[in-house]
Amino acid sequence: MQLREGSPQSSASSESLGALLGGRKAGIDATLPPVAFVVTWLLTSRSVGWGALVAVVVGLGVAGYRVSRGDKPRAVLVGLLGVAVASIVVVRTGRAADFFLVQLAANAASTLAWAVSIVLRWPLLGVIVGALLGQKTRWRKDRSLVRAYSMASWVWVAQYALRVLVFGALYLYDYLYDSEAAVVALGVARVAMSWPLVAACVAVSGVVLIRALPKGHPGFRHPHPPADAPAP
Asked: TM spans, by residue (predicted)?
């Protein structure tokens, strides 16, 4: 989905919000270690140790491949750290569902952080896109853009909240019934709610961002504050 710079009648030199926020490969990479964990756990008669070991090995393989392809080491290490922490947690507790506990906690924290950022008029979508475009905080001087980023950021709040609801329900079910099916469902949900959900979120938030900007606005790449207006 392409985000046009301003109204639907603006120029063709548009910027893809999806390209700015990360491509499909990041979402796919993030699902490989959890899938490896669940598959290994099933094949080794519920051995969380083997599952964790294979997940880490797969995570290291993905990280090595991405670094060799020129990806930023910091982004790669963040993903690998998540796999390592999840593996440590699951080995210590012995419950397979706990491999997804870090993911559940991260999404809960993200839901809160994005919602608070909107209330404080520092919507995180604006913070992230502004940083990626080298705008720093200039976008905050544009009241229309702040309002548009705030509205679009609610879509991201909904995305994280949906993950919390799904992962939380499956985790609770496993906690109550020690269900193998719940662990498998957590793995499936991890895949389904990774890149596909993010892609939908980017598309919807992009539409919301465009439509929230007033007619004639130069677009999110070109903050346009009123000459006499202070930062909101």
From this structure: 48-68, 75-92, 112-133, 154-173, 193-213
